[in-house]
Specification:
Blueprint: H1 8-21, E1 30-31, H2 33-40, H3 44-56, E2 60-63, E3 67-70, H4 75-98, H5 102-119, H6 126-141, H7 146-153, H8 156-167, H9 171-190, H10 193-204
Antiparallel strand pairs: 1-3, 2-3
Length: 216
């Protein structure tokens, strides 16, 4: 199979996205096409296309009269992201039950929980947070529904970034996240559907005390 090289737009997209998730571009920071073009050595047009793609994925927002900025998180956005993930996980769990894929789901959850455990180093890193979202995403992947997978994939980095900024100063929160994933796996293996739905809601319905000073 021939692997096509990344277009300039894709190169710019990956570079800018990496600067956002590594906090080189802080939350809320202004994105200048001219500055990014100069810093990345890529012409303006691919930079604009990359920013447009990042806006579609929620990592960049457009403000009237002030242009493009890296997303910022408040309680409303975090709640909407959690509610979206609840809908995806619950709906896809139901689809797995209907199509007889519960065992496959449990195996995929176990595999991703093991990866999450291996990734933990005692410090909260963005790579670790990605693995926590990959666990939640297993409910969607087990459905083998390309449209659902694509829809969630388009918000993957936004979900991971939200979790990273929420929990970066709260070690107990991401340890609790791991234990909740263990509990979710056991509930899925038990086959008690109501307990699974309740565990999903409990996992993603919490008080979110987001401080606008985080990540700065």
């Amino acid at each position: 199979m021939i692997v096509k090289p990344d277009t300039l737009r894709d190169q710019a997209y990956k570079l800018i996205r990496n600067q956002i998730v590594t906090r080189e571009l802080p939350l809320g920071s202004h994105l200048s096409v001219a500055d990014l073009s100069r810093d990345l050595g890529i012409s303006n047009s691919p930079i604009r296309e990359a920013i447009s793609k990042l806006e579609n994925e929620g990592l960049v927002v457009s403000h009237p009269n002030s242009g493009f900025h890296v997303v910022t998180f408040d309680d409303k956005l975090v709640q909407e992201l959690n509610e979206t993930l609840i809908a995806f996980m619950s709906g896809c769990y139901e689809l797995c039950c209907i199509s007889g894929r519960e065992v496959e789901l449990a195996e995929l959850l176990k595999e991703r929980l093991d990866i999450q455990s291996q990734q933990y180093t005692g410090e909260l890193t963005f790579e670790y947070v990605q693995k926590t979202i990959e666990f939640d995403k297993a409910f969607v992947d087990a459905c083998h529904n390309d449209m659902l997978s694509s829809m969630l994939e388009s918000r993957f980095y936004l979900l991971a970034l939200s979790t990273f900024y929420l929990y970066q100063d709260e070690k107990e929160s991401y340890i609790q996240n791991y234990h909740e994933h263990q509990d979710l796996l056991e509930k899925v293996k038990s086959g008690n559907h109501e307990q699974v739905f309740n565990a999903i809601r409990h996992h993603l319905t919490k008080e979110n005390h987001y401080s606008g000073n985080r990540g700065k």
